Amino acid sequence: MDISAFSALVFLPFVLPLCVYVTFSDMRDMRIPNQIVVALFLVFAGAGLFALPFDAYLWRYVHLIIVLVAGIALNAGGAMGAGDAKFAAAAAPFIHVGDLRLLMALFAANILAAFLAHRLAKHTPLRKIAPHWKSWNHPKFPMGMALGGTLALYLCLGAWFGR
Fold first, then answer.
1. DSSP for the chain?
2. Which carries the bigger pLDDT value, residue 14 or residue 122?
3. How many Cα atoms occupy the beta-carbon half-sphere of 115 within 13 Å?
4. Domain-wise residue ranges, the chain
5. Residues 116-143: tens digit of each pLDDT
6. pTM of the model
């Protein structure tokens, strides 16, 4: 992996709880709160100064802009929710561009696993734990499960296998 283990370790304790909350919130309400997206951005803005060389830190904001523009286009086409697009944009600066292929494979696997887990749990007694969650009866999939899981898993892998 091209992400440094140091930067992944700096980001991980701040990002992991946000990713867990995004997953929970998207399953419960079928929305990702703007406060979490802003918090994720602020984590990068603050911790990124310590975790990355300054030139790399500044270039990572370009990732945010590119993913935000793509997310807005996908949202306009109905392919992605607005909260998902904003969360993906806020998560983009955490990703080293050299890990993009790995990230796409990780995201694809995570979408499949999250979708299967959600759809299976919907038809098991696990549903009784949270019967009021909107995602159980909503025709769309709560993509925050896959987005939050992918970012968390990427940073965990980066902390372990990063350069």
1. --S-HHHHHHHHHHHHHHHHHHHHHHHHHS---HHHHHHHHHHHHHHHHHHS-HHHHHHHHHHHHHHHHHHHHHHHTTSS-HHHHHHHHHHGGGS-GGGHHHHHHHHHHHHHHHHHHHHHHTTSGGGGGSTT-GGGT-SS--THHHHHHHHHHHHHHHHHH--
2. 14
3. 10
4. 5-161
5. 999 998 888 888 888 889 988 888 889 9
6. 0.93
